[in-house]
Amino acid sequence: MNLPVAQLWLIPALPLLAAGIGALTPRGGRRLAATVAIGALALSFLLSVGALITALADPAAHLVHNFDWFELGSGTLRLGWVLDPLTAFMAVMVTFVGLLIFIFSTGYLRADANFTRFFCFLSLFAAAMLGLVIANSLLLLFICWELVGLASYLLIGFWFHKPAAAAAAKKAFITTRIGDLGLLLGMVWLYDSTGSLLFFDGGAGVLEPAALDALAAQATIGGLAISTAIGLLIFCGAVGKSGQFPLHVWLPDAMEGPTPVSALIHAATMVAAGVFLVARVYPLMIADQPLAHVPVHALTVVAAVGAVTALLGAVIAIGQYDIKRILAFSTVSQLGYMMLALGVGSWVAAIFHLLTHAFFKALLFLAAGSVIDAAHHEQDLRHLGGLRGPMRITFATFAIGTMALAGVPFLFSGFWSKEGILHAAHGWDVSPLPLYAGLVAVVLTAFYMTRLVAEVFHGTARGEGAAHAKESPPTMTIPLLILAGCAIALGFLGTPAWPWLQARLEGRTEIHGHSLLEGGGLMALSILLVALGIGAGWALYGRRTRTRAAAVDPLAARIPRIFSALTDRLWFDELYAATVGRLSDGTARLADLLDRHVWDGTIRFLSGLGLFAGFVNRDADEDVLNGGFDAGSAGLRRGGQAYSRRQTGDAHGYLRVVAISFVVLVMVIMLGGGQ
Amino acid sequence: MSFGPLQLCLLFSSALFCVGLMGALSRSNAILVLLGIELMLNAANINFIAFWRYGPEPSPATGVIFVIFAIAIAAAEAAVGLALVIAIYRHQRNIRLQEADTLKG
Amino acid sequence: MTTAFIIIAAATLGTATVAMVLRNLIHSALLLIASWAGIGAFYLWAGAEFVAFAQVLVYVGAISMVVLFAVLLTRHSRSEFAVAPDSLGRILGGLLASGATLGVLIGAVLSTPLLAPATPARGITVRELGGELMGPHAAALLILGVLLTVALLGAVVIAASERGPVPRPPPPPVAVQPPARRA
Amino acid sequence: MTLPLLSCLVFAPWAGAVVLTLLRRAGPAAVRGIALAFSLSTLALAAIALGAFEPSRTSMQLVERHSWISALNVHYHLGMDGLSLVLVLLTGIIAPAALLASWRITRGIRLFAALLLLLQGAALGVFLALDFFHWFLFWELSLIPAFFLIKLWGGAGAARAAYQFVIYTIGGSAFMLLGFAALYGATGTLDFVQLAQLAADGLVDQRLAALGGAWPHVVFLGVLLGLAVKVPLFPFHTWLPPAYAEAPTGASMFLTGVLSKMGVYGFLRILWPIFPAPLQAAAPVLLWLALAGVVLGAFAALRQTDLKRMVAYSSLNHLSYCLLALFAVAQAAGSAAPTGEAATAALSGTVLQLFNHGLSAAALFHCVGVLEARSAGRRGLDDFGGVRTAAPVFAGLAGITMFSSLGLPGLNGFVGEFLIFRGVFGLAPWAAALACLGLLVTALFLLTFWQRVFHGPRAGAAAGDFSDLRGVELAPLIPLVVLMGVLGVAPQLLIRLFNPLVTAWAGHPVVP
After folding, report:
1. Which among A26, A395, D323, D468 is most buried, taking Cβ atoms within 10 Å?
2. What is the mean pLDDT of residues D80-88?
3. In chain B, how many domains are there?
4. ipTM entry
5. CATH code, B31
6. Residue A71 is nearest to which of D386, D415, D495, comparing CB atoms?
7. Cα D400 to the chain's mean position, in Å?
């Protein structure tokens, strides 16, 4: 089963069609909407598998299909799609995870009045995300990039009658748009410098050597190569979308959306789009590597941002009480890992982690959703507890996800992908700091996940919801089981001993495995750190479980001030509100004041001067232009009254005036030598 | 100082014009005012004919045509004017022009 | 030649002046008719025969009639043809203004060197005049026709006595039958 | 002799106005029907013109040129190129939409419809006239119906806003008239095509210089001022928010959809081709002003609590993008750098943005008008809440309109803005970078609008009986929204009309 590249557009087109049908389906057509959406995505999944088979036949090739969008000057603006292993793996992952989450949603939202609209938006998201994945043009990618942003906005605000959801949706859109503007600028700069936005175009694309050499050769402000500057601007987009520091603040708030949305968009796919973007334009990002004179390489910035984010997300996650927020900060942290991997030069490690993370994080979110649904929308872990008994499947799958995320060795996919990243960071010769950050984050990740599992599933139920929790219906548990299977199995596609996935991504057909003992020291260290994290977590939270909701957190009892800082997310929101928010408010106020008083006032002043020259007017009090206008008409009216008093109605008088004027006129002409 | 026919005609028309003007200015009866104005119009017509006939650049028919049109318009004017006089009379039971000042400011 | 002109001018001016001074309206109107006839004579003297005929037809024939009708329609009683004497101030003002106008006009005429032509322009035949009127001036003639029509209609509308709508006779009283009461 | 298509285009709405004036007895339904038929005539005739139009020719097409006042060398000269065609199409779409949006007006509907038709004819005249004499007549004539529409059907402060609008614009136009009088004195012609040709040969500057003194500057600044007030260019925009806010919905739609395009059209048709050198000299300053319009316009919108004023400021912001692109091109016109592609992109973006802004701003005003109609004239940001719950269809269409306005890819607004940014970046990179701020703030205030009015629990005027869109309220919105989607996916439909033209302009900036 092969899918030729020319037909690649079918993959996003099918969900798009489903979204269109969903938009027109009345509220009652729940079954129809869900069937169409799931059916379309299932077909897309099959097509993606076909595309993967095509791509793996020649993994080094970038199959492209480009077409004209519109005329521009003497040429045309062209878009297109590309098929290579990166695209194909991503498409398979998106469609497969998406399919499972769609199925899960039919159970999770079974009681929601806007069920059809939910599937319409989900399909729209899937279409945009798949379009993003197959794009062979930065412009097409940007278009889909914004559309996934739109879908994210709509789905975070799905329960728009809740003010918090509406505010979170807006915050997500605006914050990511800040990054997107960088991407837009990078894109126009790239277009301006190379005259094309196609990635691969038979030698003329921007990711092909001719264009890259030209970009790296030219210098711009601050001694940066153009490719560095463009790369950094494009990275801005990735920072916004992937919730990297300093634009990470929207992602935890985005948890106001329904949980399947959090699983699909804010864990598995969309937030990973930033990583995908950097991986896609990787040739551009590394174009400045040979240049020694460049003050900073693009990838160095990527690595720094990734390291900071990985650490920051993990630290803040420790102090949270909301299940979904813990998972959200965990996502931030894991995305930081991926960026770190990109920055230290191993994009395949990043993509491998992206794929495994998509599965186990989707699993974690869906399992959390199962808990929340069973506990009547209780998300605060202080009010949960003791769910291990009533929710066996959920607990088992959640535990598998936790172990994958924490990096429990050998069996779980997260271990292998994280090892790849740490290995790459170890090999980076610029600075050891990313490695240290990654290692610290390993401990923290294991710690906060252990805390989460202990608080939610062990001990006793501390709330009404948790006390009456029952296992979720099969539409929800079956996707959990499948995802749990993948969270284990996927790791074996990329072990150091048999790195099939990495080789295919890099376009190689032969696989160079090596013994696990190579670099075994690092692996042993990280296993030790995972054990340390889990042990510490268990020691604090597992041995003596919380008994009532109001009890003080054990860690908070030990380091109260630091812990409350973590609970308040290190005050990033407050900081931004006090700086950026204030600045924007102030500018708006200034612009408004300028408008109302300075510009308008100047004009009024000028018009007042004109009026003053015309007739002195003492009554222009209220405001000069209109008051002046009124006064002007009043003056005219007074003059008119004076003249109208001369209108005596006496026809003789008029005629006399005419006669006398005539006489005067003739005399003036004659005496004035008018001849 | 001898007068050519043109000067004579012009003096004649000037005198007629001023007689009409005097009537229009000094009489209060609206009909007489209108008649004075008719006289002034006639004086103007005399000038046209005079210049047509004795002017420095005699032309074939312009003056005559002009006068014919002026007479026609004067007829119209007289008809409308006198109708107005009758309307005024009906309104205020006299035709004293100085009393028809409803439109004063 | 000049004698004829002087006689005509004197008659015209004399009748006009007297007409403007008289108190009796009927007399004034009759004198003015004479004055208009004098102007017609002047046109004949000047060789504009057609204009002379038009003058006689329009002024002596038509406008005089209109004037007389107006005079007759605007008096209170059968014998009241005399108008009230005018105020002295108004007469003086009129005299002053018209005298000044006469002065500047005469001054202007006398001080302007008017080149007399070698030969007076030849007269114009009625045929030529007709050709002119129907040729180059056809449009003006048409417009004039419209103007006259409109003026006529306007004069009729203005002068017609405003008679309100005929009052309707009051409706015959309808016999109101009280509803029959069934007891 | 063929049918004088362009004359028909211009005068058909006026004929409609005359017909409405004569039909004193017609009922409101008949009046609306007749007005709509005449209003739609533009679209029908424009479709015919579209058939006869050859995009590949860059000169004027369907030209009508007759001697009019030979003593002044004034000709009745109409012609159409890609730019005119796009704007005529826009007028053909917006004018019926504005009429439909005013369908429920009961007070003086006959006069209202007649004034709207007069306005439509005047705008078409501006877009098609090629002689300053009647171009200026149309230009000024457009003010009179606009004045009465604002004053008679407007809100509480309408009288004041209307006077301010008219006096301000007439003030600007007076300077323009002065400029053109001097230009006529210097060159002896008022024909745009001839003037542009003279300018291309360098004769306009030469002859103006012959007038001596400050005249060349006075002429240029006069024309600039007249156009700048109309667009408006920052800081000559203060008449705009009150005028747009106080006008009745239909008039606001037409004002922002069509009338605001007249100024930019004037820049492209008059200022740029006839005064290339002075414009280039002034471009650096003008670029800053346009940038201020983009950024401060958006920020000022953020601060507004009156929804109509907010949308009015967004108009300022969007039109300033057009001017930004235009000035960037003008500034770079003489430089040696190869700027052709960037200039083409910037100019294409400008024309596209004109059309797109017309669609989205008119639709936005209609949405605010619907809110007003539902709440007895309230239009404050805090007067509503949860409208999306009460009226989902309305919310959906309004949402698409807003996302189109904030430049979401996939809808029409994006393509124009992308091309403008691409062009401006190639010509003046720092300006493009700063203008990004405008994009961000636009998103911010539109989403604030959306969040406060449509989201949250039902509150304010939406708490009670708030019905969804019905019948004729949908009529103006649906075609606009459909066009937004179609043009977002297939901008080629529009671009093909003017691409050869802007390519020629970008090569050597002389129109036509």
Report:
1. D323
2. 91
3. 1
4. 0.67
5. 1.10.287.3510
6. D495
7. 21
